[in-house]
Design goal:
The N and C termini lie far apart (about 75 Å). Helix 4 packs parallel to helix 8. The strands form 4 sheets. The chain has an 8-stranded antiparallel beta sheet with strand order 1-2-5-6-9-12-13-14, covered by helices on one side. It has a two-stranded antiparallel sheet with strand order 3-4. It is about 35% helix and about 25% strand. It is globular and about 60 Å long. The protein is of the alpha+beta class.
């Protein structure tokens, strides 16, 4: 066989190999029909992430979640928020800076219903970092003296507290922010189809493996503190949007025959007593959806509707008890139908 003939034979083989490599590279980049599913635990809850990609990204996902934990977790002794609560006054990281400004904005838009300075009240009522007995009225009044976002300043990268007893708690926005950060990482990989869920807070993009919008259930708000029943009120079809749900139907306790919800009103210093049982919010970012869902639990149905009328980028599915004590639903046009 001559040298020329050898080259002629090899050229088609090389072309085929190049084509195969190109197809494999394309599939790796685009993740065509190669859905990965990762799960684990973070922020005291579970996470489940599904994404259409040619390789598994769990290590990178958990690095993102660790970064969020190192910034925002009050249970992490070395986190930024722990240092602030201990009056160590560090320069805040980029994540805390972003969450602080989101929280400040939602605080303003909800007339103080969302407030990350509520931690001392949460502690006093026995929810959060430590347990305790029901606080006395005088104790609540005392704590309210150092609760309020207006008592915080951000000077450059330093959080200044007007009272050293102030403590911050970002739990009502941190999970949503963590979802956003994982979604951002997947976006940077060029991934078009994914669903990121942390403790019920979600960002959905593109389509599921069934080539349909992601189907996300909204749990019926029954007294199910152990999460045994998980009966669904409705199923929403989502794509290219974030969703967060807040409710008092799983996190509560009874004392002297009275039920106390876990959501604290920053203005009264007491658990909310509104008729809203569950607030599900759709928004462009999960951090904001998370914060507004908590706010709506504090504000109640009518004030939540007022905010929604001003913020067209938000949609909500609100479950409440009507005047007859029956479950009722109010939702923004276009969802839950």
């Amino acid at each position: 066989m001559t040298k020329n003939n050898t080259i002629k034979i090899l050229l088609p083989v090389v072309a085929v190999l190049i084509a195969v490599v190109a197809v494999v590279s394309f599939k790796k980049e685009q993740g065509t029909d190669s859905y990965q599913k990762d799960s684990g635990f973070v922020f005291g809850t579970s996470y489940n992430i599904t994404y259409n990609y040619g390789e598994n990204l769990k290590d990178e996902i958990e690095k993102v979640l660790k970064d969020v934990d190192n910034s925002l977790s009050p249970f992490n002794e070395k986190s930024t928020i722990t240092a602030i609560n201990n009056n160590e006054c560090p320069e805040i990281d980029d994540m805390f800076y972003e969450v602080f400004n989101i929280s400040k904005d939602v605080n303003k838009e909800t007339d103080g219903a969302f407030d990350i300075t509520v931690a001392p009240l949460v502690n006093a009522w026995g929810f959060g970092f430590k347990s305790g007995n029901m606080p006395a009225e005088d104790s609540i009044k005392q704590i309210l003296q150092y609760v309020g976002f207006e008592k915080l300043d951000l000077i450059g990268r330093i959080v200044k507290k007007k009272d050293p007893r102030m403590m911050l708690d970002c739990s009502a926005v941190a999970k949503g922010y963590g979802v956003d950060q994982v979604a951002l990482m997947l976006d940077e990989k060029g991934i078009k189809d994914y669903m990121v869920e942390i403790g019920g807070e979600i960002v959905a993009k593109g389509v599921s493996q069934k080539k349909q919008p992601w189907r996300i259930g909204v749990t019926k708000p029954t007294d199910d503190s152990l999460s045994v029943n998980n009966e669904l009120e409705t199923v929403l079809q989502l794509t290219d949007i974030a969703m967060a749900t807040s409710g008092n139907y799983r996190n509560f306790y009874y004392k002297d025959g009275k039920k106390y919800a876990h959501t604290i009103d920053p203005k009264t210093g007491k658990p909310v007593q509104h008729n809203v049982l569950s607030a599900t919010v759709l928004a462009p970012s999960c951090a904001r959806a998370d914060a507004y869902a908590t706010s709506f639990m504090v504000l109640g149905l009518e004030k939540a509707q007022e905010i929604l009328s001003r913020h067209k980028e938000l949609k909500a599915y609100l479950i409440y008890t009507n005047d007859k004590g029956e479950y009722s639903v109010w939702h923004s046009p276009g969802i839950g139908e």
